[in-house]
């Protein structure tokens, strides 16, 4: 008998996707260890190390289950059924609804690939949904990745890109704490700091990285847009920005008509003029300077100018885009930023000095700024500020794109335009996530309960837990109870799965194969491609999400659209342009490094005899977005501070939420080793605010909002921004006798049950999970710690 097997792999438990060694003995996963030569394999977090507890957890669903009792019953009466029986019934339901009512009347729900095992299968699941024809997938993107990945395209034409933290002069972390959420990024930050980079952290919480920052901006939750505009104002007013980059690669110099808000076009000046030729103002009184979307221009444009231009309709006052943005930013001098955000003028000035003095700047912004009613324009303000540094796409900056031309097989081309237009919420948010078929949970609930704009009859969920990952908990209960049919695929019977008609057992990533085309913790990691093998056999009858959708596709006659139900064919299609194959990767389980690299200054690369530019309407980074204007939104990230004010004086505290290294979203609270690290939900509160409410460390408290209440233990945190409190979302597991969230009411600790959705970001639909308003009070009569 040999010793333990050590199998190269990578963990999918969170966004970091850490390279590791799976230790297997007698066919069982015994543990995972770091894989130092892997681009993300230097360290592992507690969630990853708890992998064996997850795989062999006694509460794992190991066979398909059918409900035998009414929804709402204390005991659903789960009865095991066969896979054939389950898939046949599900496929029949899907087929009948599509034929009689339309595929749009089936909604799907997909958990985040950024923080769950579904990352191995997400492209296959989305491909199946689009092949079936539904435009309605609850993806949670509007409260997760959409702003950094899609709202950023209103500015860059690309996503936020991969920050080159290891090689930058200035690290900016904005509403992002990789020490708790992205270990591989934390490693890259350490490299940058060791190389002499300075770091700015914009965060209300005194995180470990905030304490190490050259400048910590202790922002009030939800006021980040004011901070971004304030920093931009300091850079623009002092002239300390990359003028050459702004003049060449942004639309800062483009002239905007004050009467319409549109760019000045050649067709505005003469009857035979072209609408695709726009204008800047040439320097030294040179007059109008025409340029099209792909030219760099032969003369130097003026970046800040306003004046009257004679048009076919008469004289029109015009301004450059940068002049208009400068005006918006000037509304936020340091004193006003302090009033709105709580950041002292001197601290704001120091941060601006660091940015202005850096040769390169790399940044990342995520949930901390994305979960608010101004999320899209906050991202725009941060992106415009970053464009002024000239670092986008350059070494030491944020670099868009990958290291090789991988093919996306998620099936965007499979959904017809007719079906795409039926996405719930798309009419109200025409530039939002609905364009990709990603809809909000509350729009689905509305369609289920009111049948408007049409009924949603069936929901098929892959790993989600809507009752605790989203607000509107009571509305969710009503909608889940009213569905004609509900299928849930997962590891456990979570709070949401209890409302399903059929539950399907899903294999963990350790029990199935998974392809990873690049590890985006770093630019170097983007070159690493790996096909992780199944390191142990599935527990019970568990199947991968990929196998589940393949089985359903077979029953629905969709095999041709799913690569003839052959996962290898699909994966080879992903790899086709790289020269790699599935067999090559199977022969190198630790992964293969592709020869390419993320391209620096890609916008300058020649294309048809001209610089490629950016994939935006003007071919430039768009300081001013005419696309947003045409859709009825602000073309510049102006801010009405009334959007940030409390609506009820009875709730004076700003309520946010923060993640713990022990958990990811609503997962892991039933894992013993992780629960020991954080046994109860906590709410962080400043010493000043705690003293004012006679609250001491670890008191049970009640968090009250206009929408509900939730219980937690007080964690008094010195240095936390006064007036701000931070809870933890995702609690649904029984806390045990003697806790305020025992088996009689486990959702009493569900923070999202107290978050309102009456206000949302008008572009994306994001809701204020990180910037609501609350009051906190000490609970009387609850047990105190010994």
TrEMBL record:
Residue ranges that the Swiss-Prot or TrEMBL entry lists as coiled coil: none
Species, as recorded: Reyranella humidisoli
Domain 4Fe-4S Mo/W bis-MGD-type, first and last residues per copy: 4-59
Name this protein carries in UniProt: Molybdopterin-dependent oxidoreductase
Pfam family, one: Molydop_binding
InterPro entries for this protein: MopB_CT_Acetylene-hydratase, MoPterin_dinucl-bd_dom, Mopterin_OxRdtase, Mopterin_OxRdtase_4Fe-4S_dom, Prok_Mopterin_Oxidored
Organism domain of life: Bacteria
PANTHER family linked: OXIDOREDUCTASE YYAE-RELATED (PTHR43742:SF6), TRIMETHYLAMINE-N-OXIDE REDUCTASE (PTHR43742)
Family that this chain belongs to: Belongs to the prokaryotic molybdopterin-containing oxidoreductase family.
Keyword field: Iron, Iron-sulfur, Metal-binding
């Amino acid at each position: 008998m040999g010793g333990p097997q050590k199998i190269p792999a990578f963990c999918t438990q969170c966004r970091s996707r850490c390279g590791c060694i799976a230790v297997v003995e007698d066919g069982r996963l015994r543990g995972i260890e770091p894989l130092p030569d892997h681009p993300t394999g230097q360290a592992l977090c507690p969630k990853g190390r708890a992998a064996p507890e997850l795989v062999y957890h006694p509460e794992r669903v190991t066979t398909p289950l059918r409900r035998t009792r009414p929804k709402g019953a204390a005991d659903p009466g789960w009865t095991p059924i066969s896979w054939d029986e389950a898939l046949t019934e599900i496929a029949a339901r899907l087929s009948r609804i599509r034929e009689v009512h339309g595929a749009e009347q089936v909604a799907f729900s997909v958990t985040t690939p950024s923080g769950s095992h579904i990352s191995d299968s997400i492209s296959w699941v989305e491909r199946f949904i689009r092949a079936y024809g539904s435009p309605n997938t609850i993806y949670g993107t509007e409260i997760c990745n959409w702003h950094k990945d899609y709202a950023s395209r209103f500015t860059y034409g690309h996503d936020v890109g991969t920050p080159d933290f290891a090689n930058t002069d200035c690290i900016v972390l904005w509403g992002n704490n990789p020490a708790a959420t992205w270990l591989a990024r934390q490693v890259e930050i350490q490299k940058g700091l060791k190389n002499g980079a300075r770091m700015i952290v914009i965060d209300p919480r005194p995180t470990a990285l905030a304490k190490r920052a050259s400048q910590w901006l202790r922002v009030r939750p939800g006021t980040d847009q004011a901070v971004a505009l304030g920093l931009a104002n300091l850079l623009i007013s002092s002239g300390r920005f990359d003028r050459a980059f702004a003049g060449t690669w942004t639309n800062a110099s483009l002239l905007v008509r004050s009467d319409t808000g549109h760019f000045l076009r050649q067709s505005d000046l003469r009857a035979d003029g072209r609408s695709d030729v726009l204008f800047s103002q040439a320097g030294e009184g040179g007059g109008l300077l025409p340029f099209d979307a792909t030219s760099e221009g032969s003369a130097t444009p003026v970046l800040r100018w306003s004046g009257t231009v004679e048009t076919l309709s008469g004289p029109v006052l015009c301004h450059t885009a940068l002049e208009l943005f400068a005006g918006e930013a000037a509304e936020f001098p340091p004193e006003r930023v302090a009033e709105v955000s709580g950041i002292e003028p001197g601290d704001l000035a120091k941060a601006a000095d660091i940015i202005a003095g850096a040769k390169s700047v790399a940044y990342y912004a995520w949930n901390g700024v994305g979960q608010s009613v101004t999320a899209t324009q906050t991202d725009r303000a941060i992106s415009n500020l970053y464009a002024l540094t000239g670092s986008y796409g350059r070494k030491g900056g944020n670099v868009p794109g990958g290291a090789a031309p991988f093919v996306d097989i998620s099936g965007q081309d499979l959904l017809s335009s007719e079906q795409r237009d039926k996405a719930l919420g798309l009419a109200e948010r025409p530039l939002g996530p609905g364009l990709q078929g990603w809809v909000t949970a509350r729009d689905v609930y509305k369609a289920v309960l009111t049948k408007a704009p049409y009924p949603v009859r069936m929901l098929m969920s892959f790993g989600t837990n809507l009752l605790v990952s989203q607000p509107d908990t009571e509305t969710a209960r009503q909608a889940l109870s009213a569905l004609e049919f509900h299928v849930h695929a997962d590891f456990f019977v979570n709070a949401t799965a209890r409302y399903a008609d059929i539950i399907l057992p899903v294999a963990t990533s350790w029990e199935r194969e998974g392809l990873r085309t690049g590890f985006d913790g770093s630019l170097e990691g983007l070159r690493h491609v790996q096909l992780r093998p199944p390191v142990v056999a599935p527990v019970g009858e568990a199947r991968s999400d990929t196998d589940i959708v393949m089985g359903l596709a077979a029953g629905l006659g969709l095999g041709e659209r799913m690569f003839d139900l052959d996962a290898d064919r699909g994966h080879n299609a992903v790899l086709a342009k790289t020269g790699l194959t599935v067999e090559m990767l199977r022969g190198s389980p630790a992964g293969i490094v592709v020869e390419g690299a993320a391209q620096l200054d890609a916008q300058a690369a020649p294309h048809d005899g001209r610089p490629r530019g950016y994939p935006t309407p003007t071919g430039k980074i768009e300081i001013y977005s005419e696309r947003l204007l045409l859709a009825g939104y602000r073309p510049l990230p102006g801010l009405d501070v009334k959007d940030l004010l409390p609506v009820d004086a009875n709730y004076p505290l700003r309520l946010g939420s923060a993640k713990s290294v022990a958990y990811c979203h609503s997962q892991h609270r039933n894992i013993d080793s992780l629960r020991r690290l954080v046994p109860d939900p906590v709410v962080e509160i400043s010493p000043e605010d705690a003293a004012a409410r006679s609250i001491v460390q670890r008191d049970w408290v009640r968090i009250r909002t206009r929408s509900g209440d939730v219980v937690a233990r007080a964690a008094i945190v010195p240095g936390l921004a006064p007036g701000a409190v931070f809870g933890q979302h995702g609690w649904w597991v029984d806390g045990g006798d003697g806790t305020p969230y025992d088996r009689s009411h486990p959702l009493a600790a569900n923070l999202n049950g107290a978050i309102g959705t009456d206000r949302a970001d008008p572009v994306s639909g994001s809701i204020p999970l990180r910037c609501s308003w609350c009051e906190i009070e000490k609970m009387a009569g609850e047990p105190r710690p010994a």
